[in-house]
């Protein structure tokens, strides 16, 4: 208990001995960082990116204790997700311990390198993910310096809507906004994550996509959800929201204890190669929550600067 209290104190106090005038606040988080030269604030996620190098630094704050998250970065677990562990070490970080992970991952014919800093306490964990393609491997030292410059300030106000590229109206529903994670707004009916109650995720793509068959792409995206390969599609309909075309899918999914759940997915594809995705899941009152999901998704609007 004493160690936990100390760690919480250290996280809160980092701003006193870690933050400088060069630090830039990361929208929708309690973190600030000194980005490498040439990096600008990302528009699709909380972090920074460089068009010249194809590199990015993404920050996620997760509900849950630090140790299980850090322990989960094993060679076997990463291999099952198509990644190769290069190095993992525990380091001294702002008066406490953190984990620094290096790995590689192929994507679309390109090898990407990742440096991931993991730190936190008994309640929350921060992941700072520096990503760069093999062709820009020379930027590796700058990426490492940047992720190690991060400062967590528990007193810093965070607004999950700040980094979103869109708006969505849930005021007339039970859904409560929990957080913004990688550009995705997370809602639940009981204000908790994780939860057994109905949830709603609303987000945007980070990378550009131009699927030749958008309907098929939406179906394949549904299958990539946890246990999505077991989902049975009941309806798939063309849909248009905020002048953007896409597809609505209603499916029966399977929970981890093999019970049937409602899965509702809407994907919208704009002319710039971006997509927006809304995923609702409920284990109860299917008709009620299907109506709620449909009503909420119709309120989706892109922010003007992202047209």
UniProtKB/TrEMBL annotation:
It comes from the Bacteria. It comes from Sediminibacterium goheungense. The keyword Signal applies. Keywords: Signal. Residues 1-18 form the signal peptide. The lineage of its organism: Bacteria, Pseudomonadati, Bacteroidota, Chitinophagia, Chitinophagales. This is DUF1795 domain-containing protein.
């Amino acid at each position: 208990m004493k160690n936990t209290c100390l760690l919480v104190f250290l996280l809160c106090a980092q701003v006193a001995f870690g933050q400088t005038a060069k630090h830039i606040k990361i929208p929708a988080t309690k973190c600030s960082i000194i980005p490498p030269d040439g990096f600008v604030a990302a528009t699709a996620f909380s972090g920074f990116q460089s068009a010249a190098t194809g590199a990015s630094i993404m920050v996620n704050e997760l509900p849950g204790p630090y140790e299980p998250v850090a322990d989960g970065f094993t060679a076997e677990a990463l291999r099952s997700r198509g990644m190769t562990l290069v190095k993992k070490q525990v380091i001294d970080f702002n008066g406490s311990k953190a984990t620094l992970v290096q790995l590689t991952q192929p994507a679309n014919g390109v090898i990407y390198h990742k440096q991931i800093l993991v730190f936190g306490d008994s309640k929350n964990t921060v992941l700072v993910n520096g990503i760069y393609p093999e062709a820009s491997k020379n930027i590796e030292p700058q990426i490492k310096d940047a992720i190690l410059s991060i400062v967590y300030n528990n007193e810093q106000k965070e607004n999950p809507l700040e980094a979103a590229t869109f708006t969505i109206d849930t005021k007339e529903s039970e859904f409560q906004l929990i957080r913004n994670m990688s550009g995705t707004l997370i809602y639940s009916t009981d204000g908790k994550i994780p939860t057994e109650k109905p949830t709603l995720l609303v987000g945007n793509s980070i990378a550009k996509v131009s699927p030749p068959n958008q309907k098929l792409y939406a179906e394949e995206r549904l299958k990539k959800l946890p246990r999505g390969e077991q989902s049975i599609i009941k309806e798939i309909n063309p849909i248009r929201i905020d002048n953007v075309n896409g597809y609505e899918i209603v499916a029966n999914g399977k929970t981890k204890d093999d019970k049937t759940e409602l899965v509702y997915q809407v994907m919208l594809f704009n002319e710039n190669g971006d997509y927006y995705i809304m995923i609702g899941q409920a284990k109860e009152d299917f008709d009620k929550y299907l109506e709620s999901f449909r009503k909420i998704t119709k309120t989706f609007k892109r922010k003007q600067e992202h047209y």
